[in-house]
User: Which sequence fits this backbone?
C-alpha cells in the first residue's frame, strides 16, 4: 500500500498489526451483533416511547432506545446477578458472544497475555440510583453491601476478566461518549507494544435513571420525536443503552491459531479540543481523524466510508461535517458518511462500540448502513449521508468517529484485512 508523505506506519510486521476476530453486542435492537447490524442495514430504528414509571412531574423526554428485551436472569444465576449492575450484565453478555465468534482459547499462557479494557461514560448508574432512593426516599439506615462493586466504573472490565479468567492488564476507561473508542485505542496500544497478545475491549452503558434523564432534559439537547442526524428537522439526541465488546489480537497470534479475521484496526487517533466543556470544535475532531489516518498509513482518498459521531444535535452535526471536509478536502464529496444513532440511539460510553459493528459490517459485507429518519438536508451539513436506504458499495478502509463532552476525540481507522 502506498503511504502518504510523512507517514510513519503502514501494515508493518505481523507482530505489530492488530486485528478483530470477534464481536458481540446488546442494544435496543436485540441481543447479538447480528440483530444490531441487520437493523442498521435496514434503517430500522430501536427508538420507542420511553418506558419507565412516570414521576409526579411529567418527563419532557418522550423517546429512548432502551434494550427492553434484555432479561439478565436468562444469562446469570441469582448468586452472580446480585453483584452485577445492568451495565456489567450487558458487557458480559456481549463479551461472551465476541469470544464465541473468535474461538479464542484462554487456557494456558493466553490468559496471562490477555488484557481487558472496557469503556463506560457513567458506570453503574442503576445501582447508584437504587441505593440513593433507599437512603433519601426510604430513609434506610443501610444500603446493599455490594453497592460499591456494582457501581464502580471498572466493574464491567473486572467482571469480564474474572468470568473468563483473564489475568493480563484489566481496567476501565471513562471519557464520556468517546469511552469505547478510547478503550479500544488503549487495547491496540498494548497489543502493539507487546504487553498483551489478545484484548477484550469495547464499551457499555445503561443509565435510564430518573436523575440521569432529568439531567439530560436540563441540558436541552434531547429530541422530542426521534434521532435525525444531519437532517434539517433534527431536534437533538435520543438516549440509548447497550454494550459492544470485541476480541482483538496481534495478527501473529490470530494467524497462529487459524482465526477468522474480521478486519484490521490499522490506526487510532486521539485529541482534546481544550476548549468548551460541551461545545465541540472542528479542529479537535479534524486532528483526531488525521492522526488516525497517519497512524494507519492511509491516504485520505483510500477511505470510502465514515461512521460519524452524528448525534443529531444542532452543534455537533455541522461541526463534524466541517471537520471531515477539513481533513478530506476534495475527497469529502466522494465519501459515504452515515450516523447509525437513528437506529440504536446515543449509547454514550457504548456508542463507539455499537458503531464499530457498523464499520466492520461495511468492510465485510460491502454495504454502507444509512442515516435513518432523514427528511431534508441541512445546508450546513453538505456531505453524502446515505439517507434512509443502505448502499451496496465496496470500501477498503473506514473511519469510526467518537467526539465527547469535555472536548475528547477518539477515531478508529479500519482496513479490509489483506495478508
Assistant:
Amino acid at each position: 500500500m502506498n503511504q502518504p508523505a510523512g507517514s510513519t506506519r503502514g501494515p508493518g510486521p505481523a507482530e505489530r498489526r492488530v486485528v478483530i476476530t470477534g464481536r458481540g453486542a446488546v442494544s435496543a435492537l436485540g441481543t447479538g451483533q447480528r440483530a444490531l447490524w441487520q437493523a442498521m442495514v435496514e434503517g430500522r430504528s430501536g427508538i420507542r416511547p420511553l418506558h419507565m414509571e412516570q414521576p409526579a412531574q411529567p418527563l419532557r423526554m418522550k423517546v429512548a432506545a432502551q434494550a427492553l428485551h434484555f432479561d439478565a436472569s436468562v444469562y446469570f444465576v441469582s448468586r452472580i446477578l446480585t453483584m452485577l449492575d445492568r451495565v456489567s450484565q450487558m458487557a458480559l453478555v456481549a463479551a461472551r458472544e465476541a469470544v464465541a465468534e473468535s474461538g479464542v482459547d484462554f487456557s494456558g499462557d493466553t490468559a496471562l497475555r490477555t488484557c481487558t479494557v472496557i469503556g463506560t461514560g457513567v458506570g453503574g448508574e442503576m445501582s447508584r440510583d437504587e441505593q440513593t432512593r433507599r437512603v433519601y426516599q426510604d430513609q434506610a439506615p443501610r444500603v446493599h453491601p455490594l453497592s460499591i462493586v456494582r457501581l464502580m466504573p471498572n466493574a464491567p472490565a473486572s467482571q469480564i476478566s474474572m468470568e473468563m479468567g483473564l489475568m493480563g492488564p484489566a481496567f476501565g476507561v471513562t471519557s464520556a461518549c468517546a469511552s469505547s473508542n478510547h478503550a479500544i485505542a488503549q487495547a491496540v496500544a498494548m497489543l502493539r507494544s507487546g504487553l498483551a497478545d489478545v484484548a477484550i475491549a469495547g464499551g457499555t452503558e445503561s443509565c435510564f435513571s430518573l436523575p440521569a434523564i432529568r439531567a439530560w432534559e436540563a441540558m436541552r439537547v434531547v429530541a422530542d420525536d426521534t434521532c435525525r442526524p444531519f437532517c434539517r428537522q433534527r431536534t437533538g439526541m435520543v438516549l440509548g443503552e447497550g454494550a459492544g465488546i470485541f476480541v482483538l489480537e496481534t495478527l501473529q497470534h490470530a494467524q497462529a491459531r487459524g482465526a477468522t479475521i474480521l478486519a484490521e484496526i490499522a490506526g487510532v487517533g486521539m485529541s482534546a479540543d481544550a476548549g468548551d466543556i460541551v461545545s465541540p470544535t472542528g479542529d479537535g475532531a479534524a486532528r483526531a481523524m488525521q492522526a488516525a489516518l497517519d497512524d494507519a498509513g492511509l491516504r485520505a482518498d483510500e477511505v470510502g466510508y465514515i461512521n460519524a459521531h452524528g448525534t443529531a444535535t444542532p452543534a455537533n452535526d455541522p461541526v463534524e461535517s466541517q471537520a471531515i471536509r477539513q481533513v478530506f478536502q476534495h475527497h469529502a464529496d466522494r465519501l459515504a458518511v452515515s450516523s447509525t444513532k437513528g437506529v440504536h440511539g446515543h449509547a454514550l460510553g457504548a456508542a463507539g462500540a455499537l458503531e464499530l459493528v457498523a464499520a466492520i459490517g461495511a468492510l465485510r459485507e460491502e454495504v454502507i448502513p444509512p442515516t435513518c429518519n432523514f427528511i431534508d438536508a441541512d445546508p450546513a451539513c453538505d456531505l453524502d449521508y446515505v439517507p434512509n436506504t443502505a448502499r451496496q458499495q465496496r470500501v477498503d478502509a473506514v473511519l469510526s468517529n467518537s467526539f465527547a463532552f469535555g472536548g475528547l476525540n477518539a477515531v478508529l481507522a479500519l482496513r479490509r484485512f489483506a495478508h
